[in-house]
Amino acid sequence: MMPSAVGRPDLEARVKRSVREYPVTLLLGPRQCGKTTLARGIARARPSTYFDLEDPATPLRPESAKLALADLKGLVVIDEFQRQPGLFALLRVLADRRPIPARFLILGSASPDLARGVSETLAGRVAYVEMDGLSLREVGPEQANRLWLRGGFPESYLARTEARSRSWRGNFVQSFLERDIAQLGIRVPAHTLRRFWTMLAHYHGQIWNAAELARALGTKEDTARHYLDILCGAFVVRQLSPWFENVGKRLVKAPKVYLRDSGLLHTLLGIGDRMQLLSHPKLGASWEGFALEQVIRLCWADRDAYYYRTHAGAELDLLLVRNGKRFGFEFKHEDAPTATKSMHITTDDLALKRLWIIYPGEHRYVVSDRIEAVPLKKVGEVLARV
User: Fold this and answer.
1) Strand 237-242 to strand 206-207: parallel, antiparallel, or no bridges (unpaired)?
2) What is the pLDDT of residues 179-212, one digit of tens each?
3) Among residues 104, 89, 93, 87, which one has the least CA distance to residue 43?
4) CA torsion 125→127→128→131, rounded to 10°?
5) DSSP code of 377?
6) On the chain, which terminus has fewer CB atoms closer than 10 Å, C or N?
7) 351 exposed, middle or buried (CB, 10 Å; 0-12, 13-18, 19+)?
8) Where are the domains of the chain?
9) Residues of the chain with pLDDT > 70: what percent?
10) CA nearest 313: which of 281, 349, 286?
11) Do 42 and 49 touch, CB atoms closer than 8 A?
12) Per-residue CA distances from 280 to 202, 284, 287, 372 (Å)
């Protein structure tokens, strides 16, 4: 029987450390990923005050926010902060008081404008913590297939039946497009953005091609780019940047695009259960995106993750740099993956310390010099030693 909740101790520890060290901590992540649950759990352990800016009765309105916040002590949690970005200026004043009577934990569901406002107004006073849905480390390696199929949104992952999980994800997509996007002040018809999001699901794991997607949508390249920025800013799509280095080769310089949550990917692709997933043409791409997200999150490496590809065809799914050393990852949904010519080329081109082939098996084994096959469920053990 599945538990009704999943603990997130590593993420909780990061937020608590940020709250201790900075006047303001910004916890960013998609809607329904568990930000409020996490923040309330942290707040319960200390004197705290909680505000929800989606509550029509909230006292944090432009004309009364200063009075509501000025005398508070302890931890102040402000949820859905993007609803009132005008509070940034007030937070700067409150964060500069000495001694600091209150520390602020602000929760947001959209990054571009929110992060820009923070960086411009609260520079040097704020710590950023990004949050996604549940990870393999949090649910346990024995639940890898469930997490892959359903995705990491807690209500989808923890649903009692597959039908309830599918229903929750379908409702999430609809409410996200019809309600959440509009509340951010973005004026794009829901059916247009859904069509674009569905197209991205079919491009999952591929190089971004604005011209091709714009033609399919019957719109301009700038418009397609704008739609991509919206979905990335709401934390439902990832752009993986290319690695640039003078290696004497012509490199592909456009980003790759992935849907960050495998459950939403499967919903948009019309995949309803594991048997449909295993027979779907996007099986390999789905596994690649799911495993890639798990590795990035194990390393807390959102801003330092890259892919590598040359015009001659050599490629690497993921490149991470840790302690000055480069490590490569390939993601293969195979029973017993082997090294390819491309892997040997990229290992030499990039001077990789190690290249790991992440696959859904049980056993870790050496493939060749500097190349090793590692089950996804054991990748945490490997990364802990580098």
Assistant:
1) unpaired
2) 888 877 788 999 999 999 999 999 999 999 999 9
3) 104
4) -140
5) G
6) N
7) exposed
8) 9-130, 136-383
9) 95
10) 349
11) no
12) 11, 9, 11, 27
Question: What pLDDT was estimated at residue 308?
Answer: 94
Q: Decide: 103 and 19 in contact? Cβ < 8 Å.
A: yes
Q: For residue range 73-97, list pLDDT tens digits in order.
A: 999 999 988 888 788 889 999 999 9
Amino acid (1-letter code) at residue 233: G
Closest CA to 380 of 135, 193, 205: 135
Instruction: Give which of 205, 210, 207 is closest to 220, Cα–Cα.
Output: 210
Buried b / exposed e along 119-146 (16+ C-beta atoms within 10 A): eebbeebbbbbbbbbbbbbbbeeebbeb
pLDDT of residue 249: 66
* pLDDT above 80 for 33: yes
How many angstroms separate the CA atoms of 117 and 291, rounded?
A: 33
- Alpha-carbon torsion, ordered 9, 13, 14, 19, to 10 deg: 140
Please state the separation of Cα 65 from the chain's center in Å.
31
Which tokens in the block code for residue 219?
A: 């719109």
Q: What predicted TM-score, i.e. pTM, was given to this entire model?
A: 0.94
- List of residues 6+ apart from 15 with CB closer than 8 A: 25, 27, 38, 39, 42, 105, 129
- Tell me how long the chain is: 386
Question: Kindly report the CA angle at 263 between 169 and 208, in degrees rounded to 5?
Answer: 115
CATH number belonging to domain 9-130: 3.40.50.300
Task: Check residue 151 and give left, alpha or beta (phi > 0: left; psi -120 to 50: alpha).
Answer: left
Phi and psi at 198, nearest 5°, equal: -65, -40
